[in-house]
Every structure is written in C-alpha cells, then in structure tokens.
Prior knowledge:
270 residues, seven-stranded mixed sheet, 10 helices, binds S-adenosylmethionine, transferase, methyltransferase, methyltransferase activity, Class I SAM-dependent methyltransferase, TcmP-like
Amino acid sequence: MHRRQPKLGLIPETLLLTxxxxxxxxxxxxxxxxxxxxxxxxxxxDYDFRRLKLKPNLVVTTALRxxxxxxxxxxxxxxxxxxxxxxxxxxxxxxxxxxxxSPDVDWYDIDFPEVVxxxxxxxxxxxxxxxxxxxxxxxxxxxxxxxxxxxIAEGLLPFMPGDSFQxxxxxxxxxxxxxxxxxNGYTRFAAWxxxxxxxxxxxxxxxxxxxxxxxxxxxxxAGLELVEEEMLTRAPEVARFPQPLRALTRLTARSTALSRQxxxxxxxxx
Length: 270
Ligand SMILES: C[S@@+](CC[C@H](N)C(=O)[O-])C[C@H]1O[C@@H](n2cnc3c(N)ncnc32)[C@H](O)[C@@H]1O
C-alpha cells in the first residue's frame, strides 16, 4: 500500500490527533463512533502516531464529541433539507461520509491549503473543499449566502489566535440568513491546561483559548443565542467508556463545574 508522508505545520498536525483517536475508537470492541473509514485513512498515512501519546480518555471523548456534532448536522439537515453545511478546520474528518446528506445539501470543508491538498489526495468526496486560513477575510465569498447553514467547528477554537474566532463568527452569521453554530467548548482553564497535555506538548503547541460561560458567545456581536450546552460526561455513551474512566466520568458528571472542564458541545442559533 502507498502510504503518504504528510507535510504539515504545527497547528494542522493536530488533525492527525483527532483522526487517530477516531481510528482507535473504531478498533475498540464496543466503539462509540465506529468510524472505520478513519481507521482505513490513518493506515494510509506514514506517520508515527505513537508520538501523539493518545490516552484512552482522549480517544473516547474525541469519538463522542464527533458523534454528538454529527447528530447536530443530521438534525439540522432533516429540518432544512436544502441547507449548507460548513465544517471549519475540517482536517481529515470523514463527517460527510458519516452524515450521508442528500444531494440537495451543499457541504463545504474548509482548512489550510496544506490540509486541503492532503485531504483531496486521500479523501476525495463530493464536498466543496476550500483552502483558506480562517483568520483571513474573503473565503466566505464563494459560498452561497441565501440558504440556512449549519456550521461545525470541532477542535478549532483553541487554535485560532486572539479574537479571530469571534471575528469569523460575526462574518459567518452576517453571511447566512439563519443557521446553527455547533462547537466543542473549552473552558479557559481547559485551554490553558492544554499545553500540559501530553499530546499537545508532544506537538509543541503553546497558546490556546477558551471561555467558561456558555452564554459568552451571545456577546460577540454575532447574533448568537445559546440553544444547548451538552455535557458529554452525562451522555449515555459513557457506559461504553473503559474502566476506570467510566467510573471517574460518572463521578465528574455530578458536578456541572467539573463536567465543563471536560468535553461539552455548545449549540447556538442565529
Ligand atoms: C484538532 S484539528 C481538528 C480537525 C477536525 N475538525 C477533526 O475533528 O478531525 C484542528 C484543525 O483546525 C485547522 N485550523 C486551525 N486553525 C485554522 C485556521 N486559522 N484556518 C484554517 N484551519 C485551521 C487545523 O489545520 C486542523 O485541521
């Protein structure tokens, strides 16, 4: 088998972490996401994934947050069959394959040019792929702005510098008549602590950002309104977490403050 050697910068390299987490989940006896395509894809990449030092916690939470964000997309598409889907900082995510939208849906995958090149090589599909730095203006111009949109940003927020995520959000909500934005949230502490996480440390990433109050984005001037904050510690899928992680997660679930420090899905409408 021809294995590709990815040439990725520091931030884009994080896509290998989420890809590998989904791949490892798919190989578990009782997977949470069960994304076998991600497992196949990881096998085609010539990279020492062991250097990412992925722990079971990161594998199951990454799989679970992907599953919950897929659910957001599926529900939105069911309610808006001719919508637009945007996956911001898509990496090598196979979300479109997992969600299998009808041809009436227009799907846009957006990431840095080097990622888009790799993606087009090893994950061809029917999505529109946009090569862009999301902190720069102009990339939205090619996306039709007359249809409702569901916008996913998974694993992106901590890597956008300064207030660029907020700025991008204002541009997005001004572009579409209505829609939903769904992200996996990071508290300020979780974002700060990320640099001590063995995986992020292994990649050498220093800065990350987050916010505590799920209502904070309502003050970004983007017309966002919080629809739901879903704590993943309380998801039924926790029953499939390996022990002792399952017991620890169930304990954490009793406290909202502690649950917030872990994975959560934030959903906003505009
Ligand atoms: C942790 S990875 C997540 C990838 C994918 N969403 C997933 O869940 O597998 C973060 C992704 O965000 C992308 N990214 C970060 N900052 C970006 C920016 N300013 N413009 C475009 N993409 C960006 C990276 O290249 C990377 O693919």
